[in-house]
Automatic annotation (TrEMBL):
GO terms for molecular function: ubiquitin protein ligase activity. NHL repeats lie at residues 109-150, 259-287, 291-334. Pfam families: Death, NHL. It comes from Branchiostoma belcheri (Amphioxus). This is E3 ubiquitin-protein ligase TRIM71-like isoform X2. Gene3D superfamilies: 2.40.10.500, Death Domain, Fas (1.10.533.10), TolB, C-terminal domain (2.120.10.30). The gene is LOC109464091. Residues 56-67, 75-86 have a biased composition (Polar residues).
Length: 375
């Protein structure tokens, strides 16, 4: 803190300060970042993204083949949709069975640091629709980008609130409902968009200073959002008309207050949550009652260090982005370790599974997205 203040007094390099701000976020110190931005408003200004302090990424935009969701609902057009450059074909959505013992390989990686088409500035949440469109919450660029499962750019829209102000939002996570509408969460709002970017519903959230995760339960059609105020965590649950159902998570049964990071729902309506403070996974029933948890802090195959993204495949297997361990792991529905999907990653952030069983991973630190499959 004193170092940042000294650099500010000396009018140090803005790009260097931006790098340190990102480092504070990565170290789970978002409240420190917010307090600095409040004290020094100029830190909220967008910094140059290309070539700052040599941090431009070298990964090409092209894909690289590699084996190795309180207000009443209102509809507005954001006017920010950019046209598609490709129209994806609908594919067979039959779930491919997981073959235990069969290795996972990375079939494509795409993106790099930047603001153009196909580039990212802190890609966080990810979701895949039933027709295999991949939606990426491109936080730093305040937009949702859409790709094929092969990493080919389709379209994008800016994440804004409706009305005269048109406040721009930094999306933290994205989920898809049964109608293929998108639910996007930032630090103050949840917004439902059509897949083309038309705003359908807005919900105000209390500003808690930490990034939120979101999912939509296909069983109850409710929207579930993670929340953490620096001391206590909870799940906030809404109906799709924006009315609040309540909060879940008081009975998490961990020794420390929990930090719910990302959330998903399985085929039976059970709610699964990653806990960044207790380094474990909590499983609740559809009413929010605690069922069980698994994992502990560590680097073994059944342990985690700051788990982030989570999803469940069509067979009920649980997939987790183990952030600080730099890998993505698969467990069965009871939390028993099955296999590694990928390892040696730079801060894997969010994960989702396609209808066909491929796994999509966002990489926050190197601003890329990867797709993993079994041969």
């Amino acid at each position: 803190m004193e170092l940042l203040q000294e650099w500010h007094k000396r009018k140090g390099n803005a790009a260097t300060i931006q790098v340190l701000m990102e480092a504070l976020q990565e170290a789970e110190l978002q409240l420190v970042v917010d307090s600095l931005k409040e004290k020094y408003p100029e830190l909220n200004a967008k910094q140059p993204m290309e070539g700052a302090c040599g941090r431009q990424q070298k990964n090409p935009v092209q894909t690289m083949s590699d084996k190795q969701s309180m207000d009443k609902p209102t509809a507005f057009n954001t006017g920010q949709v950019k046209q598609s450059v490709v129209q994806p074909k609908r594919k067979d959505t039959k779930v491919r069975p997981i073959r235990v013992g069969q290795p996972w390989v990375r079939k494509v990686r795409f993106g790099r640091y930047g603001s153009g088409r196909g580039k990212f500035n802190r890609p966080l949440g990810v979701a895949v629709s039933q027709d295999n469109e991949v939606y990426i919450a491109d936080k730093g660029n305040t937009r949702i980008q859409v790709f094929t499962m092969d990493g080919v750019y389709i379209r994008e829209f800016t994440t804004t609130l409706p009305g005269e102000t048109g406040e721009t939002l930094e999306p933290c996570d994205v989920a898809v409902d049964r109608n293929d509408n998108l639910w996007v969460v930032c630090e103050k709002h949840v917004v439902q968009y059509s897949r083309e970017g038309t705003c359908l519903v807005t919900i105000d959230l209390p500003h808690v200073g930490y990034m939120c995760g979101i999912t939509v339960s296909m069983a109850t059609e409710q929207v579930i959002v993670t929340e953490f105020d620096g001391q206590n965590g909870r799940l906030r649950v809404f109906n799709q008309d924006g009315s609040e159902v309540g909060t879940y998570g008081a009975g998490h049964r961990s020794p420390e207050p929990w930090w719910p990071r990302y959330v998903t729902v399985d085929g039976e309506g059970n709610i699964l949550v990653t806990d960044g403070k207790n380094h474990c996974i909590h499983v609740l029933d559809r009413e929010g009652n605690f069922k069980f948890k698994f994992g502990s802090e560590g680097s073994d195959e059944s342990q985690f260090k700051y788990p982030r993204g989570i999803c469940v495949d069509g067979k009920g297997n649980i997939i987790v982005a183990d952030g600080r361990n730099g890998c993505v792991k698969m467990f069965d529905s009871q939390g028993r370790f099955l296999c590694y999907i990928g390892s040696g990653m730079k801060v894997p952030w969010a994960v989702t599974v396609s209808p066909g069983g491929d796994v999509v991973v966002t990489h926050w630190k190197d601003h890329t997205v990867s797709v993993w499959t079994q041969d």
